[in-house]
């Protein structure tokens, strides 16, 4: 579909960044939660992105915008990080020694993630905009009245 | 409609165009245009649905909605450009001195 296909590729890139942003937001939001008897302690999540052919396309041989690989969320996995122990004997979820377990969310890494997500999304948006502008200008070339 | 004395020119022209572009000349240009108008109409209806969804509930992904709307807008503008071209050609013919 030509340039329209390029728009779709950029949208797929934004899909991937949106998935990363959702997970990063969830990690930050759950950073102060504690494990209770009912629910286990929140484990920080991470998104695994893979590059995949769109449905229907078999190989890159054709090399049109419709058959180029685009990012897909392969899976969202829990990271194996040790919980953060906070000494708070009065807390209802505290263990025998008075420590409360909280998810091992790394605030600095989370902030870096946010910056990277923001920039990547912007880059995809820029590609989208450029394609859109080119399509528009090509249409305008056909009507010089 | 074809006028026999000039039809030969048209045939020759479309054959040359075919050789040049590698694309067989369409059976009927006007019929093709109607089909593409229908395609644009489908796009417009899809765009309408997206707008309604945007208004009623927060979308699953905003960029997907924008992509859909942008595709709708561009395909409509393309249709408009084709229509203007056709009308220009017609008016040019009507102005021709006989």
Topology:
The complex is a heterodimer of chains A (145) and B (98).
Chain A: H1 3-29, E1 45-52, E2 70-78, E3 84-87, E4 99-102, H2 107-141
Antiparallel strand pairs in A: 1-2, 3-4
Helix pairs in contact in A: 1-2
Chain B: H1 4-21, H2 29-56, H3 62-95
Helix pairs in contact in B: 2-3
Using only C-alpha atoms, the radius of gyration of chain B works out to 20 Å
Q: Compute the number of strand runs of chain A.
A: 4
Q: Roughly what is the average pLDDT of chain A, rounded to an integer?
A: 86
Total count of helical runs of at least 4 residues of chain B: 3
Q: Level of helix content of chain A? A: 40-55%
Largest sheet descriptor of chain B: none
Helix content of chain B: over 70%
Would you tell me the structural class of the helices and strands of chain B? mainly alpha
How many domains of chain A?
1
- Helix/sheet category of chain A: alpha+beta
Nearest-integer average pLDDT of chain B: 78
**Ends distance of chain B:** 18 Å
In short:
Chain A has 145 residues and is α+β, with helices and mostly antiparallel strands. Chain A is built from two helices and four strands, in the order αββββα.
Task: Give structural notes.
The complex is a heterodimer of chains A (145) and B (98). By secondary structure, chain A is an alpha+beta fold. Chain A has one domain (3-143). In chain A, 43% of the residues lie in helices and 17% in strands. Chain A has 2 helices and 4 strands, in the order H-E-E-E-E-H. Chain A has helices at residues 3-29, 107-141, and strands at 45-52, 70-78, 84-87, 99-102. In chain A, the strands form 2 sheets. Chain A has a two-stranded antiparallel ribbon. In chain A, strands 3-4 form a two-stranded antiparallel sheet. The longest helix of chain A is centred in the C-terminal third of the chain and has 35 residues, at 107-141. The mean pLDDT of chain A is 86. By secondary structure, chain B is mainly α. Chain B is elongated. Chains A and B meet through helix 1 and helix 2 of A and helix 3 of B.
